[in-house]
Design goal:
Elements lengths: L4 E7 L4 H15 L3 E6 L15 E6 L11 H7 L13 E8 L8 H12 L3 E2 L4 E4 L7 H18 L17 E5 L18 E10 L9 E8 L13 E4 L5 H10 L10 E5 L12 E2 L1 H7 L9 H7 L6 H11 L4 H9 L5 H7 L10 H4 L6 E4 L10 E7 L2 E2 L7 E2 L1 H7 L6 E7 L12 E4 L6 H12 L5 E7 L9 H9 L4 E6 L9 H7 L1 H11 L2 E7 L3 H15 L5 H10 L3 E6 L1
Parallel strand pairs: 1-2, 1-3, 3-4, 4-5, 4-6, 18-19, 18-21, 19-20, 21-22
Antiparallel strand pairs: 7-11, 8-9, 8-17, 9-14, 10-13, 10-17, 11-12, 15-16
Helix pairs in contact: 5-6, 7-8, 15-17, 16-17, 17-18
Length: 580
């Protein structure tokens, strides 16, 4: 009989693909497969050419159809032109993508990966699966039937040696965790900085919107540590922060879990597979440190959380409820209970007082705090030691009694001036031209963030062909960076077109300003090869703005204006960076 092994590789930006990979691994364990789970950038890339057992790829989508950060090295590797066309002729694989069909480049990484594996001779086990956030059951709407098909095919090729382990049996924990003598040498457990991290001190935290405006937008300024090599970042790049849970939230959680008494006792973590836990996590630490710095207790729990919590409930009523949330039939109820009101892990555990997680299972139940990326609003060429972030504070209401708040923005908002944090840099999706090519920027709301760096950089190089369309609700309420923008206007370095949507009887948006300036824009695009950038909320704005540019181009005699815009997209002359 063939070797019953599976390799599961994931590319994950916010944790969903990683969570899905481990869910598949648990199902594989029940079917008596030996399973290894790694990120695509963790795996020995050359080993993919000699693997004799099936490989399952799970990848999400980030930015505008981009690969997740922990997949990019692997993706660049298999794109090499020197790889023979039949290099993967022995590979049997399956690909599942996680995306959102409201984006134009829906599941592009999964589609490209599947196509490339096939180009190199790989054989798909089943058709590619496309998880869609827009499905009424979320990603599970496509994942459940895809997995059912996958197991049917695999079990036909690799017959079961014994019956499937029933769902009532808990899988083994990923780690052995024990409290230890505080006097032992814990030098091996020193916290390491995540590679690429730079230390930075918060020097400014100012509200930019009016006190009575419904949305709090803050300007956070960080000063980079002089003792380290000052990094160079390009206009359009992002600052990456890993937030922490607030002390008050951690204290409440530890009390809820009956762990307060042991919260500061040293414990030793022994992973059964070193790839499970990041290297920067100390192997000797405390529960308080882990739930402050690593576990996201304020996250909205995913289906896998309920699947694992089921095993640890001492109440039959709670077990019945938890089991319902883990079935395909119960996903609508899970959406109603958890996803739509954005109920957090802490609130779920409040509802389920008889369901508590054993210490050795914490890495299997609680999700990791995800990194947060923010477009940088300052230019390295102008202020090399300073990193400015324009951040909308997440605070909104649902059916829950308490407002929903963002883990990262709450952390930033409560941060004292002078606090030092770790900060990394990541490439953005919008690229600024090196020369004096005119740029047309459309950035309503916090979409202006990256454009502040664009303009700052170009003004420092004495380039004045900068055109910005900015939109907000009120001139006196949320006109972000107003003072600096007007300074650039006054010295003829910027032409600014504003749309204050609520300052008159009829609402006015940026797309209307684009149409009003049609002659100017067509001249810049057709005669000077101007580049268009669009940044901001992805709900309707990007499509409306693209239609406005299409209309402008059509009004100037181009027969197929939509194709003209699409050609601009392909050549990098129309770039979007939008988010929900």
């Amino acid at each position: 009989m063939s070797e019953r092994r599976l390799l599961i590789l994931y590319g994950s930006q916010t944790g969903y693909a990683k969570d899905t990979a481990y869910r598949i691994a648990r199902q594989a364990w029940r079917r008596h497969f030996s399973v290894s789970v790694q990120s695509m950038d963790q795996v020995d890339k050359w080993s993919i050419f000699t693997t004799t057992y099936p490989v399952i790829f799970v990848c999400s989508t980030t930015g505008q159809g981009e690969e997740p950060d922990n997949m990019k090295k692997f993706w660049r590797f298999i794109l090499r032109k020197t790889i023979p066309y039949d290099a993967l002729s022995g590979l049997k694989y399956a690909v599942f993508g996680l995306g959102d069909s409201s984006y134009q480049k829906f599941n592009f990484p999964a589609k490209r990966l599947s196509r490339r594996l096939q180009q190199l001779g790989g054989t798909p086990i089943v058709d590619r699966g496309d998880g869609d956030d827009q499905h009424y059951l979320g990603l599970d709407g496509a994942l459940d039937p895809w997995l059912e098909n996958l197991w049917a095919v695999l079990l036909d090729r690799y017959p079961l040696p014994k019956p499937i382990v029933p769902e009532s049996v808990a899988p083994d924990p990923s780690c052995d965790i024990d409290y230890i003598d505080e006097h032992i040498d814990t030098s091996v457990g020193k916290t390491e900085l995540i590679p690429g991290t730079h230390l930075a001190q918060l020097v400014k935290s100012d509200r930019m919107t009016a006190p009575d405006h419904f949305q709090d937008v803050h300007l956070f300024e960080f000063e980079l540590d002089d003792s380290t090599q000052i990094p160079q970042w390009s206009p359009g790049d992002c600052a990456v922060l890993r937030p922490e849970n607030l002390d008050s939230d951690v204290n409440d959680f530890l009390q809820q879990m009956h762990w307060t008494e042991h919260a500061d006792k040293l414990l030793q973590i022994k992973p059964r597979d070193e790839s499970i836990i990041p290297k920067w996590i100390p192997r000797c630490t405390t529960l308080r440190w882990l739930f402050t710095n690593y576990f996201d207790i304020m996250a909205v729990p995913r289906r896998s959380f309920f699947e694992m919590l089921y095993y640890f409930s001492s109440s039959e009523n709670e077990k019945e409820r938890l089991h319902e949330f883990t079935t395909s039939e119960g996903q609508d109820e899970l959406q109603t209970y958890c996803m739509r009101p954005r109920r957090t892990i802490v609130e779920v555990l409040d509802d389920l007082p008889c369901s508590r997680v054993p210490l050795e299972y914490i890495f299997d139940v609680f999700p990791e705090i995800a990194d947060r990326s923010f477009s940088i609003s300052s230019a390295s060429a102008v202020t090399p030691h300073r990193v400015d972030l324009t951040v909308a504070i997440v605070n909104y209401k649902t059916l829950m009694q308490k407002p929903r708040v963002g883990v990262c923005t709450k952390w930033l908002l409560n941060m004292e001036l002078g606090r030092t944090v770790g900060l990394r840099f990541a490439k953005g999706t919008m690229k600024l031209p090196a020369g004096p090519t005119p740029i047309i920027m459309v950035g309503p709301g916090t979409g202006i963030a990256a454009f502040m760096a664009f303009i700052d950089d170009r003004v420092s190089r004495n380039i004045s062909a900068n055109y910005l369309f900015f939109g907000c609700r009120n001139e006196h309420g949320d006109f972000l960076h107003q003072e600096q923008l007007q300074k650039w206007v006054s010295c003829d370095k910027l032409q600014l077109f504003c749309a204050f949507s609520r300052d008159q009887e009829n609402t006015i948006y940026v797309q209307q300003r684009v149409r009003e300036q049609g002659d100017l824009l067509w001249s810049l695009i057709s005669e000077q090869d101007a580049i268009v950038y669009v940044s901001g909320n992805a709900n309707r704005m990007p499509d409306d703005v693209r239609q406005a540019f299409t209309d402008v181009i059509a009004d100037h005699g181009v027969d197929d204006a939509a194709a003209y815009v699409q050609a601009m997209v392909k050549t990098g002359r129309y770039q979007e960076e939008c988010w929900y």
